[in-house]
Design goal:
2 domains; disordered N terminus; 8 helices; 324 residues; 3 strands
Length: 324
């Protein structure tokens, strides 16, 4: 049997670390309640074992690809297999890391061993999350940086090209050309005398006014119908019917696009929910595995200490058992 007592820090040393004194048959030894070096070793082993098993799964997955024979699994099967393999290997790695951290810490109290395993799992999870977020952030940041450089270069080129004219006249040539066209354009040109390009611009302007609604919508619609009738050489009624049919088709297309967007949003939310639940389940199983590994290490150490004693020699009870 073994008994454990806890010694609180003495008043003379306020910063002393809490230790555990474990008394066994044949002697006793003292160790800290928590060993960060052992936890760090467990984290390193979790990452190493996860990487090792992931490479094994990667090799097995690529071994199933056979393009010539046409027996290559589809993308969904590969994705499901990779996900299951990641979950299984992660649980194994966490159990192994928890076991190692508790064993190296010299823990002989089961609760302390489980806590060592949980802390090891927590640090490994935070480290993995940090690596994933920094990798994704680096990719996104590189993309935005490249886009910003291109935009900055384009803006600098335009500014340099327009700077001499702007300094000389105060306005750009494009602005002057637009103003000249506005001066020569009649206020309400006859649709029959308008060019096709001018008719399209006029229709686009009035359609924007019609889409906004309000008191000017009816006048904008009449203007568009008049231009359509004059340009296509059809009656006003036929132009009005064509306008209404076109607007009905556009409204139907907008409704379909809206419904498609809603469906896509629902699908995305459902997939994100399932992924979140799956991640939660995986992390929970990994935490349980790490705690179980720490508990198993404590049980193993207690068994070894009970049979061999802290000095490595067989205890009297073990010797009597062996002699009998």
């Amino acid at each position: 049997m073994s008994a454990s007592t806890f010694d609180s820090p003495s008043p003379r040393s306020p910063g002393a670390v809490e230790t555990t004194t474990t008394e066994v048959v044949g002697g006793s030894h003292i160790h800290r309640r928590i060993s960060w070096s052992a936890i760090f070793g467990g984290v390193v082993l979790i990452i190493a074992v996860q990487f090792l098993l992931s490479m094994l799964g990667f090799a097995i997955g690529l071994g199933t690809v056979d393009v010539n024979a046409g027996s290559t699994p589809d993308a969904s099967s590969i994705g499901i297999g990779a996900g299951l393999w990641w979950v299984i290997t992660g649980i194994i790695a966490c159990a192994f890391g928890g076991y190692v951290s508790a064993w190296l810490a010299g823990i002989e109290i089961r609760l302390d061993g489980m806590l060592h395993g949980l802390i090891t799992w927590g640090l490994a999870t935070l480290l993995a999350l940090y690596l994933l977020t920094t990798a994704a952030g680096g990719l996104i940041g590189s993309g935005f940086s490249a886009l910003g450089n291109v935009t900055s270069a384009a803006g600098s080129g335009i500014k340099d090209a327009a700077q001499p004219v702007a300094q000389a006249t105060g306005v750009t040539p494009d602005v002057l050309q637009q103003q000249a066209q506005a001066y020569l354009k009649p206020t309400n040109p006859d649709p029959a005398n308008m060019s096709r390009e001018d008719a399209q611009k006029e229709i686009a302007t009035n359609l924007a006014t019609y889409a906004k609604g309000g008191s000017d919508a009816a006048a904008a619609k009449d203007r568009v119908i008049a231009i359509m009738a004059a340009q296509q050489h059809i009656s006003r009624d036929d132009a009005a019917k064509q306008f209404d049919d076109t607007q009905a088709k556009l409204q139907q297309a907008r409704d379909q696009a809206t419904q498609t967007a809603k469906t896509a949003a629902d699908t995305t939310a459902s997939a994100a929910s399932k992924t979140s639940f799956a991640t939660f389940g995986y992390l929970l199983l990994a935490a349980i595995a790490a705690a179980a590994g720490g508990s198993a290490a404590v049980q193993r150490r207690v068994t070894v200490t009970h049979h061999y004693g802290p000095g490595g020699t067989a205890s009297p009870s073990a010797a009597r058992g062996a002699a009998s």
